[in-house]
Structures are given as structure tokens and as C-alpha cells.
Design a protein that fits this description.
Strand order of the largest sheet: 2-3-1-4
Number of strands: 4
InterPro entries: HMA_dom, HMA_dom_sf
Mean pLDDT: 81
Structural class: alpha+beta
Shape: elongated
Order of helices and strands: HHHEHEEHE
Number of helices: 5
Protein name: Heavy metal-associated domain-containing protein
Distance between the termini: 57 Å
Pfam families: HMA
Largest sheet: 4 strands, antiparallel
Low-confidence stretches: 21-34
């Protein structure tokens, strides 16, 4: 009976890790290439919000999307709130657009996990 409980616990833990797809090491490489952005530059950037469907966890899903967005050229800041399912992005409009940022979000984890249902400039 004790072994059955241990096997069940191991199965639950394994499923919880499997439900959150992890982005490969490209995100880490992109983060190291990114230059520091000053507060003045950040203040000049446009802000947009994206409602994202398909996230199942904060650390695997939301954090992976956040890192992917933050690694894009022209993105000064990206924050993904798992609870509200909203990504808020500060970006340089000369280098990024709502469409390009939407494509970035929807391409994470192979392109079949996340869908942007609404996007708007703030």
C-alpha cells in the first residue's frame, strides 16, 4: 500500500512537470545577448498588452513566454501575469509591432500551445 502511494505521488509530480512545456536553451542565449536599456529609453517605448490562452502554469508557461518576449530586439520589458493571462510589453515601435509580438508569443513551445486572443496598445 505504501509503494502504491509513492508511485501515485511520483506520477502526479511527473505530470505536473510535463504539463508545462519548457523552451529550449535559445531563451538563455537571447537573454545574454540583450543590451541594458536605460530608464529614459524605457520611458520612450510604447506599451501593449496581450491576452494569452493556453498557459497552464506560472513557471513553465508564463515565464517562458516572458523570457522569449524580453529576448526580442526592441523589447525593453516584458511581464506575463499567469493569473490574469495578460502579457504587458514595452517595445520600440520602430523594431517591433503588435503583429510581430503576437507571432513571438504564439511561436513559443512549437507554435501550438499559446494563442493571443486580444492585443492592444496602451
Amino acid at each position: 500500500m505504501k509503494n502504491l502511494k509513492n508511485i501515485g505521488l511520483a506520477l502526479v509530480i511527473a505530470l505536473s512537470f510535463a504539463s508545462c512545456k519548457q523552451e529550449n536553451k535559445e531563451v538563455a542565449v537571447e537573454e545574454t545577448k540583450k543590451e541594458a536599456i536605460s530608464e529614459a529609453d524605457l520611458a520612450k517605448m510604447q506599451t501593449a498588452s496581450f491576452t494569452i490562452d493556453g498557459m497552464t502554469c506560472a513557471m513553465g508557461c508564463a515565464k517562458t513566454i516572458e523570457n522569449k518576449l524580453a529576448g526580442q530586439e526592441g523589447v525593453g520589458q516584458a511581464v506575463v501575469d499567469f493569473e490574469t493571462k495578460i502579457a504587458t510589453v514595452k517595445f520600440d515601435a520602430e523594431k517591433q509591432s503588435l503583429e510581430s509580438l503576437t507571432k513571438t508569443i504564439e511561436s513559443v513551445a512549437g507554435g501550438d500551445s499559446y494563442k493571443v486572443t486580444e492585443s492592444k496598445k496602451m
